[in-house]
Design a protein that fits this description.
mainly alpha; three-stranded antiparallel β-sheet; 3 strands
Length: 158
């Protein structure tokens, strides 16, 4: 999407029938009109609300955006995010070194750079679920899964 289309999309988001605080939370959460997106935890701290309230607001906005007239612009916006997500994954794949063990704190520092629309905790869970990362049972150590030549996995969900 070009800059004018981004501005148009932001204006459409801001024209939704939402309270001002809900608009602010959604925009911060997904980095719309912001330099970076905010994690659920950051939103909770800023607005003194529970994570369920953040999720309720997200669901409400997405429900409003599903309207056929609005959904085309959302799809264009999310397609851009998918391209950025793939680029981020490629960089992340280079940064996490196979054979090295990382503490949870070290992994979180790396993931915070690449979380895009998601917070780093969700990204970490997704990487574990998709077999990119593995960890000890007590979550004290993480490592990149080294794939065998004959059993390549696709990492599409990241």
């Amino acid at each position: 999407m070009e800059i004018n289309e981004n501005i148009e999309f932001i204006e459409k988001l801001n024209s939704l029938p939402l309270k001002e605080t809900e608009k602010e939370i959604f925009n911060k959460r997904f980095g719309i009109g912001e330099e970076n997106s905010f994690t659920v935890e950051e939103i909770m701290n800023i607005y003194k609300i529970k994570k369920e309230e953040v999720w309720r607001i997200e669901a409400k906005v997405f429900r409003l955006l599903r309207h056929p007239h609005r959904s085309r612009k959302l799809k264009e916006f999310l397609d851009i995010e998918d391209e950025e997500k793939e680029q981020s994954f490629n960089k992340l794949n280079e940064e996490i070194i196979a054979g090295r063990k990382y503490t949870e704190k070290e992994i979180n520092v790396i993931l915070k750079k690449y979380c895009g629309l998601k917070d780093y905790v969700s990204l970490r869970k997704e990487l574990l679920k998709n077999g990119f990362l593995n960890r000890t049972s007590n979550c004290s150590e993480y490592w990149k899964v080294i794939e065998e030549k004959n059993s390549c996995k696709m990492h599409n969900g990241v």
